[in-house]
Write a structure and sequence with these properties.
This protein is of the alpha+beta class and 221 residues long. The protein is built from four helices and five strands; from the N terminus they run H-E-E-E-E-E-H-H-H. Helix 1 runs antiparallel to helix 3 and helix 3 packs antiparallel against helix 4. The model has no long low-confidence stretch (mean pLDDT 81). Helix content is 68%, strand content 18%.
């Protein structure tokens, strides 16, 4: 039912007779059945407001007569009139207006629910975005930690290499110092031999000095 139809129904209900609607039996001598089964007299129905008759279905052209037998007792009634009268009495103006009010209230609830749904939907999206940002920040942090650990490993390796180089340099310096001392010793030894040869022949002593120095250096190395 569209909003326009509901408004039209409200206007009709407001214009209808107000009060308590109810249905009841109306005795009629109308005939029913065919041939030898034809009979007269059955119960029809009417709709009342208070004590006034609002709608009488005695002359309904859609009558559907039902019968019941209980030994000598016989009853016949218009089932169609009964159902329609009960429905019309139940669908009275007050009931229709109450139903329309409930629909409007439910519409308000639905609108509120829809607004809240989109509100929480927006919050969920915001939470999702914050979660994505937090996850991205965590990934960046983990990446920086991994890079930092790699740099630390590089520094540790470099520090180890530097210590090894320093130790090697110290060893070479010790060897160099020993070599210098050996070289000085060999030089002095050569000078001593050269001086002895030089006392007899200056040139021959000089050459012998050089040979002695060279021999001394080889022997000491």
């Amino acid at each position: 039912m569209t909003a326009l139809n509901k408004q039209a129904l409200r206007q009709l209900a407001e214009k209808a007779t107000s009060g308590e609607w109810w249905s009841d039996v109306v005795e009629t001598d109308g005939e029913y059945g065919e041939g030898e089964d034809r009979a007269s007299g059955y119960h029809s129905y009417a709709v009342y407001v208070g004590s006034e008759s609002l709608l009488d279905m005695t002359n309904s052209t859609v009558a559907c007569i039902h019968e019941e037998w209980d030994h000598d007792y016989h009853i016949a009634w218009d089932e169609t009139a009964k159902r329609n009268a009960e429905f019309i009495a139940a669908a009275n103006p007050a009931t229709v207006l109450a139903l329309l009010d409930e629909l409007e209230k439910e519409k308000g609830y639905a609108s509120t629910y829809e607004a809240e749904k989109w509100h929480y939907h927006g919050l969920a999206e915001s939470e999702g975005e914050r979660a994505d940002r937090a996850e991205k920040a965590l990934e960046d942090t983990e990446k920086r930690i991994a890079e930092h650990n790699f740099e630390n490993r590089l520094l540790a390796n470099a520090d180890r290499d530097i210590k090894a180089l320093r130790q090697r340099i110290a060893e070479l310096e010790v060897k160099l110092e020993i070599a210098d001392k050996l070289q000085d010793s060999a030089f002095r030894h050569g000078l001593q031999h050269g001086f002895s040869y030089g006392q007899t022949n200056d040139q021959a002593g000089y050459e012998q000095c050089l040979k002695s120095y060279s021999a001394g250096g080889k022997n000491n190395g």
